[in-house]
Amino acid sequence: MKSTQWPVLKTYDFAHLGRIALPLGGIGTGTVSLGGRGDLRDWEIVNRPAKGFAPRQSFFALWVKPAGGAAVTRCLEGPIPHSEYEGGFGSLASNHGLPRFRKVSFSAAYPLGQVHLSDPAVPVRVRLEAMNPLIPGDSKASGIPIAMLRYVLTNTTHRRVEAAVCGSVENFIGRDGTMDVAKDNVNAFRASASVSGVFMRSDGVPTSAEQWGTMALATTATSGVSHRTAWADVNWGDTRLDFWDDFSAEGKLEERDRGKVGTPMASLAVRISLPPKASRSVTFLLAWHFPNRMTWEPKPAEKPKEPAATTTCCAGGSCCGDPNRIGNYYTTQYADAWDVALRTARDLDTLESQTVEFVRSFCQSDLPPVVKEAALFNLSTLRSQTTFRTEDGLLFGWEGCGDKAGCCYGSCTHVWNYEQATAHLFGDLSRLMRVVEFEHATDDIGKMSFRVNLPLSRRREFEIAAADGQMGCLMKLYRDWKLSGDTAMLQELWPKARKALEFCWIEGGWDADRDGVMEGCQHNTMDVEYYGPNPQMQGWYLGALRSGEEMAKSIGDTEFARACRTLFDQGSRWMDQNLFNGDYYEHEIRPIADAAKIAKGLRHQTLGARNLADPELQIGTGCLIDQLVGQFVSHVAGLGYLHDRKSVRKTLASLMKYNFKPALWDHFNHLRTFALQEEPAMLMCSYPKGRRPKRPFPYYNEVMTGFEYTAAIGMLYEGLEKDGLKLIQAIRDRYDGAKRNPFDEAECGHHYARAMASWAAVLALSGFDYSAITQTLTFAARPGKWFWSTGAAWGVCEIRNRGGKMVIKLEVLHGQIALARLKLTGHGECVTPTGTARSGKPITLVI
Fold first, then answer.
1. Are residues 847 and 828 in contact, defined by beta-carbon separation less than 8 angstroms?
2. What is the reported pLDDT for 833?
3. Where are the alpha helices (DSSP H) in 2-105?
4. How far apart are alpha carbons 411 and 419 in whole angstroms?
């Protein structure tokens, strides 16, 4: 494969490598992560999170021999920081006894990671290029269970150099970082026209086990390949010694007998020749295939019933297997891991070039570097174990990941409401989540379970509806319909969507008196219930009413559209008149003393207030970080203002004044800590007016990035760019590679979904909006080069000011969009000549 020049967004020096772990893997497939020094860590490919899991003796090595000189062998990794090594059995670093390169740095523009290795004692420089295809609008290509590792060797001498790169991976099938049922694993060498390598399977792990599957370590090299399907079965660590001596002799491998080892090693080496000062590359593919994903809330398997003699077994029922098995979509697309490697190798050049084109186009846009970093690096969450696809192709997500298990199950609506990346990059996957929410999680009276159970036969076992979750799903349905123009989807889901909005008005509900104001018992993302009108829930409600109005008009339900508009006008006016205190919006606490007056399914029995006559765990007079979250999503969806514009701007300024802390040395936090000491951050809530409740809502003095992005992007939309960028910079400075992993913004778990709200900063600064319904594409009247994406198509739009006229060059780099009109906000609009913009056919317009 030809090596292309990869774009770089950020480079990390040795002092900032310790926490780096860049996930390599497809959407819904799990990942193995590339560490900052070039190691592979966190092997999370077996259906569950597995932080810290690294199969023994799995590493890559280099053999190099200059003409007339002595051979050198090195592990293809940089130095181990002393913070990772305690000595002996206390070592935190794997393969700590191997000689390695003295100098290392790391460059990234996700999903592209590069490790740069050099050593004065080694006559070649090495650049490791690691990636998995990520192509917006192509969920299939972006969902391959594979990691590509290309080692580019550059001869630094004036002599010819012989070199070899060798990858070694333990066949750990049966282990997932938590469970160990490994037994009788087998490795076999395979070769074809496009790849050769070692296929790993198991003859002892039950095929029904969650840990059962296949793996492959392959190379695209067509010559100079040698291999081992096992290392020598000897004692006292001499297994590794035998391998090292064998490889160090000539850069080739000789086969060994596996002996009694149940998890044999697989090694694959490629030998090449380097002329003076020349560069050559060796590409490896690490593929996997583990089909038995289990549900996130398992139930004990029932004893199978004896089927009647006159009937056939029901497909997928408990009589056919484990009722907790939900499977993986990606494993329905490939026969096994070798099939993954074989098919990917054939398309690798195209997959790489399209991924590089996306990343380069994005990185070359005129966005501030920290915005590019926040948006691009958080896309890694889509590849982590936070998200998965069941065998039917539907997309689901945890809130985040614990070290060894998913954290907070159910595609939690009030968390996933915040993220904006999926809809704008993979619209087909986003719409699948809407199908789950309305078709499966919403019952016949419109109550939406905010955590969906699996398999879908158990979908509504969780019986609580979240006010923000349900209202946000209505806004997302509108957004996804508008971006895609998928009116068939809207028509199919509209009956349940209308019921979900009407559910607000049931007796004992969120707005039982239908005055446009949420005042009922409102369970929400703070994991408690609010009582009485508050800006956070009211904003979601107003956004849902506007969304309902627009969708109803499209469907032809004009009466319902008018009802939504009336309630919106009333509710918006009431909120500005009654909750705005001159600086920000407050919460008016209204107790509901009689629990019998709260509709069923609105109150969690253990998490919220226990004293309904004087409820604890409320906001009260607090200045809440996401009090304008509804407005944030409304801007993203192109719904306009939900509140008075001046009050919105003043509120955002107040958030910076009251909630932003330049350091946290003096800050008391009684719960979880996601920022500390010298780090600047924005607090969840402050009480500048005093009268703080004795027990405010649980997370009021925490710091969480997803909420910070909501506030920061709100500032960008209102022109408060200095403050918005300052806050985003504060977030990313905390994820600098030394203190935290740049590819893992945590909240309740690693790779937290809410942080993908960061993508909306791209929309706010470029002014991007697209309606497939009216075929209108909108940008800010702001000169520059802007990346854009609709979820199906993407490209760049370059805007230049020529004597008061705006000259626009629009390029579609992937897909196509229906386009009748292009607008520059506050400047003007024009009709496009073609009606459709396609890849490879730029359009130039003047407004």
1. yes
2. 79
3. none
4. 12
Q: How many CB atoms lie within 10 A of CB 815?
A: 18
Give the distance between the most distant pair of CA atoms in the chain.
90
Q: How far is CA 317 from CA 245, 330, 390, 503, 704, in A?
A: 54, 22, 16, 33, 41
Nearest to 341 by CA among 188, 167, 147: 147
At 807-831, the pLDDT tens digits run: 999 999 999 999 999 999 999 999 9
Q: pTM score, two decimals?
A: 0.96
Could you report the per-residue pLDDT of 312-332, keeping only the tens digit for each?
A: 333 344 445 799 999 999 999
* Number of separate helices (H) and strands (E) present in the chain: 15, 35
Residue 324 near residue 301, CB atoms below 8 Å: yes
The sheet with strand 196-202 has its strands ordered as 10-12, 103-109, 112-118, 124-131, 146-155, 279-289, 214-219, 196-202, 185-191
The per-residue DSSP string of 735-798 comes to SSSSSS-TT---BSBBS-GGGGGGGHHHHHHHT-EEETTTTEEEEES--EEEEEE-SS-EEEEE
Closest by CA to 507, choosing from 457, 445, 555, 459, is 445
CB 481 within 8 A of CB 497: no
* CB contact set of 830 (below 8 Å; sequence gap of 6+): 821, 822, 845, 846, 847
765 CB-contact burial (10 Å; exposed 0-12 / middle 13-18 / buried 19+): buried
Q: How far apart are CA 106 and CA 108, in angstroms?
A: 7
293 touches 326 (CB < 8 A): yes
- 3-state SS string over 220-253? CCCCCEEEECCCCCCCCCHHHHHHHHHHHHHCCC
Q: How far is CA 444 from the centre of its chain?
A: 32
Of the candidates 202, 267, 199, 183, the residue with the CA atom closest to the CA atom of residue 230: 267
d(CA 526, CA 532): 15
Position 783: which residue type?
P
Q: What is the CA radius of gyration of the chain?
A: 28
In whole angstroms, what is the distance from residue 113 CA to residue 130 CA?
A: 5
Beta-carbon-side half-sphere exposure of residue 482 (alpha carbons within 13 Å): 21
Which H or E element spans position 660? strand 660-661
Is 453 in contact with 460 (CB distance < 8 Å)? yes
- 3-class SS of residue 743: coil
Which one-letter amino acid corresponds to residue 468? D
Number of Cβ within a 10 Å radius of residue 593: 10
The residue count of the chain comes to: 847
Secondary structure (H, E, C), 125-144: EEEEEEECCCCCCCCCHHHC
- Residue 188's beta-bridge partner residues? 199
Other Cβ atoms less than 10 A from the Cβ of 841: the count is 12
Q: Averaged over 643-648, what is the pLDDT? A: 98
Could you tell me which of 656, 800, 8, 20 has the C-alpha nearest to residue 372? 8
Residue closest to 169 by CA, chosen among 263, 33, 236, 100: 263
Q: Which of 352, 355, 347 lies closest to 194 in space, CA to CA? A: 347
Q: Nearest to residue 347, comparing CAs of 537, 194, 501? A: 194
Structure tokens at 640: 């306009």
